[in-house]
Amino acid sequence: MRRRYYILLSLFALACLSVVLLLRSGWLEEQIAARARLEVQRSLGATLRLGQLKLDLWQGKVTIDDIEIRGRESATMPALFAARRLELRAGLGSLAQNRLDLRALILDRPRIHIYTDATGATNIPGGKGGGSLDKLLDWRLGQLELRNGEVSWNREKYPFDVQGRQLQNAV
Length: 171
What we know:
Blueprint lengths: L1 H23 L2 H18 L2 E3 L3 E4 L4 E10 L10 E10 L9 E9 L2 E4 L24 E15 L2 E14 L2
Parallel strand pairs: 5-7, 6-7
Antiparallel strand pairs: 1-3, 2-3, 3-4, 4-5, 4-6, 7-8
């Protein structure tokens, strides 16, 4: 009986050590980034580039540095959307099916660049549909902060800062 107890305890310790090593390896962050790129491509028809992604499961927080979403603009032009840092803090409702519950969404230096050419075409991509983002209709956001933002439309620039609390959309 005692031997069985030690074997189970050893297996449990080995499982815990494996989980800790997996979380520290960066594998999970790579999987999240790959899934995000896929969903942006499917839903928006755009290309997502991410810098460093940090995941803190204990605080329910994801931090991403240097985000860029490229639409139809050329590689020499600024991206459709860029931000220096994105911080997401998940709420408990995020565990519910088909609901996004965030305690906070904070964007530092968001930049939106929209270009219109002589024919009226823009760099905004046409969504392909069929991605998970299309199905996300039920969401709740505790805190929204967009810090030191700027929207550029052709050569005109408009700075902005946005703060919001307790935002939601339900179907």
